[in-house]
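Feature request, filed as a ticket because there's no other form

It would be nice if the structure record came with a short human-readable summary line next to the tokens. Right now we just get the raw output. Example of a typical job, pasted below so the devs can see what we mean:
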Amino acid sequence: MEWFKLLESNLDKVATLVQFCLETISVVCVVVGLLKTIQLAIALSRSHQRNHPFPFNLLRLRFGVWLALALEFQLGADILATTIAPTLEELVKLALIAVIRTFLNYFLGKELEVEYKQQKQRAELAAEQFVKE
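Raw output as currently delivered:
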């Protein structure tokens, strides 16, 4: 039985270390997402034509994808935290993160779908205009 207690204590340490790594990756995702979104905003502002509206949706979608990824890693970290010593507060936090992540991913997926359809339509129109010329 002593080996079981040793395994249990080591599992606790490994889970804590992996939880920290997942939380760190989550923070990195948010920071990288912010930097990539700023980079896209600068590129779009340089190539923006005055008679067209600025494509804010592209910025939202870019950052939203990174936030969704960060939430995935955060959810993994929270799952690890609740497997070791679950408290009611941790279980509620885990449930809230799961619900937020699910809604974010659902609506982000819908927005991406609409944006891709619009890009496809614009590309088809541009191709038709190119053929006519």
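Something like this underneath would help us a lot:
The chain has one domain: 2-132.
Helices lie at 2-47, 56-84, 88-132.
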